[in-house]
């Protein structure tokens, strides 16, 4: 089966990274959170997760020429002021590797950790294979104690061919707005998909996998939709105008990160709307794993003009206006509603 060993390595890497993140989130210290040059937050767990995933992929797939496009870099950790943070990250990475129960590695030094983080500097593109990683997607949610995801995908000749999404705080039971009462309040989901092979979910750290599908609603009135928790990341007014045009009755479900794609892939809701503020450029690591998880579950992800998402152009994902995701039946009416809402918005400016 194509990409079988890559999927196994990706699941292992992401599961270990999730373990590191869970440990940090439980006891998050103010000193663990820093601000990047664009003012967005980054924590020791973002860096630790990136170092771990990079290290595990290289260890598990030694024969491959390794290319990784990832969100974080080690610039701030190489400064004098970053030394304590780097020591803390190195300790977290080594503790997590030790908890894996294998003695087949030697303790990583701070230099090893810097090198592992910086192997995420690849630019991606349409040629060859590139891993695409968001070590913590939804860092603001992570810091708040809410939803976040570790999102890893493989790009091959410009197409996403596999994706793994760990959502440590996502309930195993549905979170949709019409959710049934569930006796289980267990959290921690691992979604994974290979091209042509469907999408599966298992409990994080578990082994029983179930195939998942997007919902098959065709009446928009019965649909519910997901959007960003942070109003700074997506225009909530615009999505509410789209929902109104569609006749959606349920209120929006606002959660952080690509956990939205995971929830959609198992039918918790029907639509995901994402309309960043003017001037923001999407990055491939914010959508690569999520998009294959949804499409292999029977959904479609497009930009607001109905173009497929093109991951082959480097680290940016250039889209017209925003990203919309839903099932096959709802997409035509969703595209119409989006077009109308965007036209109204443009004429009111
Ligand atoms: N201004 C702006 N507009 C749009 N998107 C932005 C913006 N700033 C950041 N980001 C990216 O949003 C990523 C998190 O997206 P979410 O959908 O999780 O947003 S939210 O936290 O639910 O509000 C978040 O991912 P992480 O940095 O990995 O957390 C960012 O890549
Ligand atoms: Mg992100
Ligand atoms: Mg991130
Ligand atoms: Mg970030």
UniProtKB/TrEMBL annotation:
GO molecular function: 3'(2'),5'-bisphosphate nucleotidase activity; inositol-1,4-bisphosphate 1-phosphatase activity; metal ion binding
Cofactor(s) listed: Mg(2+)
Entries under InterPro entries matching the protein: DPNP (IPR006239), Inositol_monoP_metal-BS (IPR020583), Inositol_monoP_superfamily (IPR051090), Inositol_monophosphatase-like (IPR000760), Inositol_monophosphatase_CS (IPR020550)
EC number(s) given by UniProt: 3.1.3.7
Protein name as it appears in the record: 3'(2'),5'-bisphosphate nucleotidase
Entry-linked Pfam families: Inositol_P (PF00459)
Family membership: Belongs to the inositol monophosphatase superfamily.
Top EC class of this enzyme: hydrolase
GO biological process per UniProt: inositol phosphate metabolic process; phosphatidylinositol phosphate biosynthetic process; sulfate assimilation
Organism for this UniProt entry: Glycine soja
Chain residues that bind Mg(2+): 71, 134, 136-137, 286
The protein's annotated pathway: Signal transduction; phosphatidylinositol signaling pathway
Reaction catalysis annotation: 1D-myo-inositol 1,4-bisphosphate + H2O = 1D-myo-inositol 4-phosphate + phosphate; 3'-phosphoadenylyl sulfate + H2O = adenosine 5'-phosphosulfate + phosphate; adenosine 3',5'-bisphosphate + H2O = AMP + phosphate; adenosine 2',5'-bisphosphate + H2O = AMP + phosphate
